[in-house]
Amino acid sequence: MEAYEIFAKVYDSIMDQTLYDRWTDFSLRHLPKTSQKNKLLELACGTGIQSLYFAEAGFDVTGLDLSADMLKIAENRASSAQKQIVFKQGNMLDLSQVGKHDFVTCYSDSLCYMQDEGDVGDVFKEVYQVLNDGGVFIFDVHSTYQTDEHYPGFSYHENADDFAMLWDTYADTAPHSIVHELTFFLQDEDGRFTRYDEVHEERTYDILTYDILLEQAGFKSFRVYADFEDKEPEKDSLRWFFVAEK
After folding, report:
1. Mind listing the domains of the chain with CATH numbers?
2. Reported pTM
3. Which end of the chain has a smaller Cβ tally under 10 Å, C or N?
């Protein structure tokens, strides 16, 4: 059973829906304004909610995700909304099949799931190759404050009629890394509940590391902001936003 197969079933229920508005607003503030319909590639698109927001904002959207289960939900969502969105199953470490794009986004700290900084750098190189000249890459990651101070000991429990979830987070051994332990109880057709367990590992790096990796990938400039706002990161910022230009 793939990592997100069970998670996909309840992901939209537990996700803070207001975040999609904030990611959209941030993107629209930092992507160049043009008269043409720009091609946008959304990495780690999940169940397609953000892809739909981008399509409604006028972009020609392609969504990429590892999880076939999440993409099925995404395709149904786009069809119901009567939006033409291309969804592809794939790994952001290999973007050779997605074509060229004007913009690329990678939100919801999805880059933090990369195994190490070498993989993060490889993703940056892949993104650079699929961006048109002058194209923009926007991504967000956990800050080191978030992984080191905020998340360890974090606990979130959700109860609904047909599922329950326990989400606990601990510090991991590598610097600025965390482990999310998730337990789901999902109701079967016969009314009984089945338990599923998952482990999600995330890791971030300091801003200088991201700076070096972006430069090594070829990006000519980048800016960094914090917590969905157009402000510089502070000591206790939780989420960093990078806007890089090819």
Report:
1. 5-143+205-245 (3.40.50.150), 146-203 (2.20.25.110)
2. 0.92
3. N
